């Protein structure tokens, strides 16, 4: 996105030439088209941020392959990945089916519950403790959450999702009935002994029933894991498609930028020989980093330009008008924003007219190997159209 914005800024600068050359109407039309490109780039930036956020947050590790290979792979995966809407429908059906299985499991557990509640010692636990009737003023200080079999039964029979959601919840409340009684009553009291005895019987029956519970939980866990993988793949496919669409749109924007740039060049005058000489002098003032950016501009329109050679040669006269105008505005912006203190000597490195004449046709930049290596890393070829 930075490269696209830079290109738009570049053609915006070149558009100023039209105004200077006495073409205000054409200049306004040109600027209008550039504004449209800016608006489109802003929209694309938001979509790019969405894709970046997804891939930053995802935990899935992909093999170390090239971007093009991943795009092809993702396109193949899309053919076999269900849509997000279908996955949501499947999730709703899966939840409903799992809830029905759990309801069946709780009905089966009802037989265990009845065996305990029908025991001859179960009568003290059938109804809530009559705290006021029995004068148990300290009951609620000792027991945090009272529980009894009638309350459990009502919860088991509740409709419209108001009751228990899992059989373990019933098991927990049954244990709570006995543990409350054992906690409040003395160990030698009849109620304590009855509660302890029934709790032991219940635990025995629960252990016999537990394999069914474990099987259902494992099945549910497996279903959720498979659903999560499917959802992840669907999200990856959707964002991969979004990334490809953005790539295609960026290519279209780049094409429009090139068309606008060429339009401006055709409407504007040619750069004079004197301006070329001044441009050569200005280029010689650039730092290695800025020089590498300038050479990048040249490389974009000149595939034969060797920026990584031991000796970098730039023929000003051989460059297109588009490249020359881009270089002129680039150098102008760099030198305009450069602090005066950054000059290497008192005369600001200005070359004499005789020295400028020596740059007539060719400007030869000889740098040490390390500078050439830096230039090689940043010089780029003209972009090719992305695969769609």
TrEMBL record:
Residues 117-192 form the Bromo domain. Keywords: Bromodomain, Coiled coil, Transcription, Transcription regulation. It comes from Perilla frutescens var. hirtella. This is Uncharacterized protein. It comes from the Eukaryota. Residues 261-342 form the NET domain. Residues 339-363 are annotated as: Disordered. Residues 27-54 form a coiled coil. SUPFAM superfamilies: Bromodomain (SSF47370). InterPro entries: Bromodomain (IPR001487), Bromodomain-like_sf (IPR036427), NET_dom (IPR027353), NET_sf (IPR038336). The keyword Ribonucleoprotein does not apply. PANTHER family: OSJNBA0053K19.4 PROTEIN (PTHR45926).
